[in-house]
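Backbone-to-sequence.
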């Protein structure tokens, strides 16, 4: 075999995947205690951290691990559960917003203390402050390259749109 299997590129992707899978397993168990799936948590967090607690459906799809049709199905289910609602877009009849409801914010309030404890224990707490700073910078660089829509509709891009 002519390919060097000890190539650092394999190691980097492998370690990233193993870390992600391990963290996801720990987080998923805690979300389920609060009757949420990982993707529902992701949707609630994205909406709660967005201006006016809302995002256009297309922007929400760009910021999550969901396709446009996938985000529609999740938002519809979460709407039935009272965690989010849809709002029509006044400037574009073809668009709508997903908006986190008070019940969705309360569910986040229930989940977040335990989630943050897990994040601290298994992720942030494993790093020095300098390692964390470097990791965040690196992850943003990679995210921006592979998913340039990841901040669509967020405070970063909303400010640019207003200008």
């Amino acid at each position: 075999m002519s390919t060097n299997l000890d190539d650092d590129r394999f190691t980097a992707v492998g370690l990233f995947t193993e870390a992600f899978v391990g963290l996801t397993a720990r987080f998923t168990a805690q979300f389920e205690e609060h009757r949420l799936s990982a993707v529902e948590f992701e949707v609630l967090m994205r909406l709660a951290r967005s201006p006016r607690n809302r995002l256009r459906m297309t922007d929400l799809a760009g910021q999550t691990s969901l396709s446009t049709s996938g985000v529609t199905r999740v938002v519809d289910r979460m709407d039935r559960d009272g965690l989010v609602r849809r709002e029509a877009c006044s400037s574009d009849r073809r668009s709508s917003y997903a908006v986190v409801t008070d019940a969705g914010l309360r569910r986040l309030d229930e989940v977040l203390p335990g989630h943050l404890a897990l994040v601290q224990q298994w992720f942030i707490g494993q790093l020095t402050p300098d390692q964390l700073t470097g990791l965040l910078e690196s992850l943003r660089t990679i995210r921006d390259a592979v998913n340039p829509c990841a901040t669509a509709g967020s405070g970063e891009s909303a400010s640019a749109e207003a200008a």
